[in-house]
Amino acid sequence: MKNKICLVATILFNISISIAQDYHLTQFDASPLFLNPALTGERLNSQNGVRFSAIYRDQTDKYSKTSASYGTMTIGIDSPVSNRLSVGQYIGNNRSADGGFNSFNLLLSGSYKLISSKDDNNRQNLSVGFQAGILNNSINTQKFTYASQYSPTAITGFDNALSSGESYTQYSYTKFDCNFGVYYRLKSKNNKSIFTSGFSIYHIGENNDVENPNNTIGVRKNFHASLIFNINNKFKFTPQVLYMDQYKSSEFNYGFLLNYMIKESHESIIGVSLLNTSTAVFQFGMIIKRTTARASYSIPSNFSRNFSNKGLEFSLIHIFKKSETNKIIKESQPL
């Protein structure tokens, strides 16, 4: 009984800390508005297209014998309105611990090119971006399990029908949210490689003091980079990295994507990456004309298997053309 009570306390502590942290995505380059506001409308100017991007991630809970899931969904739409200015909208929702905790984010996004590709023979681009909107976090404590609900006759050891003894049942707050980012891209003179990098800050103005109840969302800092190699007419190799830091917790995601052109406007994608050296991620996807679809699966190492969650993630990017004269757009390059 003592061990089970400690286990429940650990679960509740982890959920309370999750309020102070954003969700993480393994296919970070497939959700540009979540990664960096400066990526709004990136690489869509010459085609004058509208980009739709979506990600769904599901994780199986390994903290208890009961089934539970962590579901994350992001949706973004963005488009350039001029050679330098782009606008978009981002929606994100994260639901965890059988609905006990939910986080919802709605943002308007915009970016401006300080250096446009047309300024330097299509070789480099420097952009800044800003997002503003609302963030809502809510907790439904009726979904939790408490030590007072321990029952030796219950299958799981706890009976949720028993009174928890807690007076509060639900907590929710909505606040203003804003983010800022910078993005740089440089193409080699021989067009064989492209270097990209960016830095972004999310939840500007928040306090990282976890003991202050008035500041429950910490500032998140992202750094991302990639180097795209066009090996030949068929193969493209892209090492990429993402570093995230929030509330004294960090994530280091590094790996590669390999694109193979099956035929014109049709490519296959495979990828492998590591998260903090403890979780391996395997990816597979396809590019068919203006649509890119990928799937990934996260597998924790033997050491962290009892403390980390396996995750299945799907992403979709589609570029809508604004006119019939536009060229086919490929979204195979990481951001």
Describe this entry's structure for a reader.
It is a single chain. This protein is 6% helix and 52% strand. It is mainly beta. It has a single domain (2-321), classed as Porin. It has a 14-stranded antiparallel β-barrel. 34% of the residues are buried. The model is unreliable at 1-19 and 325-332 (pLDDT under 50).
- N-to-C SSE series? HHEEEEEEEEEEEEEE
Give the uncertain stretches in residue-range form.
1-19, 325-332
Indicate the radius of gyration in whole angstroms.
22 Å
The CATH architecture term is Beta Barrel
Task: Provide the helix percentage.
Answer: under 10%
What is the count of DSSP helices, taking H or I runs of 4+ residues? 2
Distance N to C terminus: 50 Å
What name goes with the CATH superfamily? monomeric porin ompg
Mean pLDDT: 79
Number of domains: 1
Q: Briefly note the CATH topology name.
A: Porin
Spatially, the strands of the biggest sheet line up as 1-2-3-4-5-6-7-8-9-10-11-12-13-14
